[in-house]
Amino acid sequence: MKNGEAEAWLRNQLESMYDPGESAAIAALALEHVTGLRRGEWLLRREEPLSGEEEQALRDTAARLLRQEPIQYISGRSFFYGLELYVNPSVLIPRPETEELVDWIVKDLLELGLPVFDKKETEADATALLKILDVGTGSGCIALALKSKMPRAEVWGCDVSDEALNVARRNGSDNNIRVDFQGVDFLDEAQQRLLPSVDVLVSNPPYIPLKDKTSMHSNVVEWEPHTALFVPDNDALLFYRAIARFAPRRLHAGGRIYLEIHEDLGNAVVQLFREAGYESVELRKDMQGKDRMVRVIR
């Protein structure tokens, strides 16, 4: 089987479960995983045959994909805001809308004119310029992306899952990016005392009501960690309420909160923060026109 034939075969297999565009994207990632070649390289070698080992690996990968295991978990690789990250079922697969949240933060802080984007070697205490905390860090994608763009910021990430923290620390090491990852149950106010005072708080917390599980794709529900996805039906704003209470104690005056939210809960999140005494609250849509981000200025 040639590279080009392998891609077409796998794409056709996947179209029983995914639309043509998604099938093509997954097939391309699978071919990269199997051959070790980037997409541009194996496209140039479409007429070259797979080795026997590669063809067997392709069939094994196809079987896993047809059980709806995400290609990112099969390959152990996901891309986020210019970084290549390791992922496994202990962490959520980074999403494009989360990249949009990171991009909003980066552009906002650029406008403030802080010299945190300087990539030159700096003294250790230069990180006092800006302090950032990522709550529920998972793979570390948000914290690491922000630190990669702002080397002179000091960045922390916290998570309740030891397995997730192992992934985040591995990603920091693999990308040579220094972020302090801490094990903290953010819903426990006693443990919140372990966290630093910061200028920016960012979070993509669990926000999907359990009742929505039945309408979600199997490749998410059956493979990704439920503790990072779901909240009780009767308290969908659980983590946002905890953040609103935490910020007056640990967010500097004038500090900013950036949140990813459920597309159906934008107005509810805005109301929660306004009722908690925050006057500057902005709701923003993602590229698909859905309410997915909130910025709060203390």
UniProtKB/TrEMBL annotation:
Substrate binds at residues 204-207. Its EC number is 2.1.1.297. The keyword Methyltransferase applies. Residues 131-210 form the Methyltransferase small domain. It comes from the Bacteria. The keyword S-adenosyl-L-methionine applies. Pfam families: MTS, PrmC_N. Residues 6-76 form the Release factor glutamine methyltransferase N-terminal domain. It catalyses: L-glutaminyl-[peptide chain release factor] + S-adenosyl-L-methionine = N(5)-methyl-L-glutaminyl-[peptide chain release factor] + S-adenosyl-L-homocysteine + H(+). It is an enzyme of class 2 (transferase). Keywords: Methyltransferase, S-adenosyl-L-methionine, Transferase. One of its GO terms (biological process) is methylation. S-adenosyl-L-methionine binds at residues 136-140, 159, 186, 204. Belongs to the protein N5-glutamine methyltransferase family. PrmC subfamily. Methylates the class 1 translation termination release factors RF1/PrfA and RF2/PrfB on the glutamine residue of the universally conserved GGQ motif. This is Release factor glutamine methyltransferase. It comes from Flaviaesturariibacter flavus. The gene is prmC.
